[in-house]
Structure formats: C-alpha cells, structure tokens
Amino acid sequence: xxxxxxxxxxxxxxxxxxxxALGLGIALPIGGTLPQADAGAIGPVINIxxxxxxxxxxxxxxxxxxxxPSLRDVPIEVTINNIIRINLSTQFRSDEYxxxxxxxxxxxxxxxxxxxxxxxxxPTPESTLVVIPRQSGKINIELKANYMISGAPETxxxxxxxxxxxxxxxxxxxxxxxxxxxxxxxxxxxxxxRRSFSYVEMNRMDVxxxxxxxxxxxxxxxKGYNGKTLGGKNNDYVLTFKQVDDAPYVLxxxxxxxxxxxxxxxxxxxxxxxxxxxxxxxxxxxxxxxxLGEDRVPIVxxxxxxxxxxxxxxxxxxxxxxxxxxxxxxxxxxxxxxIVGKEKIQLxx
Length: 349
Fold this sequence. Notes:
Strands 2, 3, 6, 9, 10 and 12 form a six-stranded mixed beta sheet that branches. Strands 4-5-8-7 form a four-stranded antiparallel beta sheet, with no helix packed on it. It has two domains: 226 residues, no CATH class; 92 residues, Immunoglobulin-like (Sandwich), CATH 2.60.40.2700. The protein starts with 17 loop residues before the first helix and ends in a 9-residue tail after the last strand. The radius of gyration is 26 Å and the shape is elongated. By secondary structure, the chain is an alpha+beta fold. It has five helices and 19 strands.
C-alpha cells in the first residue's frame, strides 16, 4: 500500500524574529480599512493560478509544478486554455477495469468528463480526466469503472473533491477584504503554537503562489488589493484536489462449501484510495427464501467468516454481509456487501 501524502511541503517558514513585524503590519487590514470586493465575478475565461495542488490522492503528483523531484508518475497538466488533464490509466488499469466515467456534483462550478483514445502506437486505451473550472466553489468528482477481473463486472467508485477559490480569497467567502488579511495573519501567527490548518486552507493562503506561506503572502495580498490585481476584477483562481476517503471494496465474493456442513466466503478486498491498511472485515449471516436475498433475516449470533449449516437453513439461501471499515478516517461510512449463495441449502437424507 502506498503511504499518505506528505503535507509538510506548504509548511510556512516562520522565524520568531518575524513576530514583531507581524504585530506591526497587521493593524491596517484588521482595522477594516480595506473595503470588500466581490470575488465571485466571472470573466470570459478562468485563469488557473499554478501550482494546482493535490491533497492525499496517492497515485497523483503532488503539484502541477514541473521538475519537482517528489513528483509521481501521473502529472496534473494545466493547458494553455486553462483546462486540467489527468491521466487515469494508473488508477484504472485497462487490464483490470472498463473505461472509466466521470461526473461533477455541480457543472456550474466545474465540468468534468473522461476522454478515452487509442491508436496504433498505444497497446491499451488511455483514459484522461478533463476538468473545466467555471467559478468558485467545491465539487465532488465521481470516477466510476467496472472491475473486470473474474466473475460478473462490479462497479467501483473513487470520489475526489475539487476546491476552487479566487486568488486572495483566503477564507473562501467570495470576497477579498480585510477578513482575508486577518485570517492570513492568524495562520502565520498560530504556526508558532502548532495550530492545525487544512491543506486546502494552506493552498488558499499561498497568495504569491510560491508553495510557501510566509510574510510575503501578506505583502502580496495587500499590494494586490491596492493595485486592483486581486478581487472582483481579477480572474485568477486557486485549485486544490483532495481525496475523499472510501471504505474498501469486497469484490468477486462467493459462498463456498467448507469442510462438511459448513459454508465460508471467498472474496478480494481492494482499497480504491490506497490509503487504508486493509484489516479483517466484520460479518453477519442471514437466511433468505428469495434468490436475490431481498427477504433476508439475520441469523442471531452468526458473525464469523464461516457458518455451520443447521436444519433451520434447509430450503433457504444463505446470505453473508461483509462490512468493511476505513482505517484512515473513522468518520467514513462502512461499506456493506451482501453475498448470496447460488443454491438453497439441502441437507442429506
């Protein structure tokens, strides 16, 4: 399993000697002398302010910035037309999955689709995620593909969030004003007390876009506002992709005879996010009279991986519920998979 994203790359470089300068420099923006400017106004074309960053997507490069020795094999490509292109062939290998599809939770914020192509120079199809940003906001990108290795195809979904905000809109409230300067100051000050800030927030606070949050960003924010290069008339946007944690999948599940008068399960456990340590799922056995297991009734106390057949199981389909849990995020909804036996239980005479 791949390790988690290193989040130290945006850690501000803040020396104790800077505190005095911060104390002097913050009086102007906190005093409310900066009027608000609408940060949501859209120009004819969005300009993506690079680098576009990635928070926790383990198969994707950390940044769209080229020539970074820490980059992985899959780049975040920003075209001259301000469209983002990401190759999906690593995440959804063509020898394991069908061609993936993509959908956006809000097309008015960003449109997404998958472009698939193949020619004589390509031994396998190449699928590319295309993202067209429209305005500030957050969307969920749902990537879907069918897992094709043995058995019937099973749909697997990988969810990714995309955060879009105007450059200088540090707090993502749709405006560039003194509140942004105040939040940026609090961020710089609280780094001394190790207060936690999200990776998405850190990217928004990088106003000068040099991948470090320092006093230079405060200077860039104030100069940008006064020079009218930030705010409602500016069309530069900051983008961050973030992995949404999904519980592991149970694939190719089958109930099989196990020794005499016992049934066990065989399946493949897969984490689409590559950020969970795969542990043993929990189980619950059921009886059903319907071949699809729709009328299943739990068998009290049967919560092991194997089930010993009894006379009560006769003329019933056995159903096993396999429950997988995320080990990286305790708040992730468990995934419940029901595996139904192919035939009703018939005991020997």
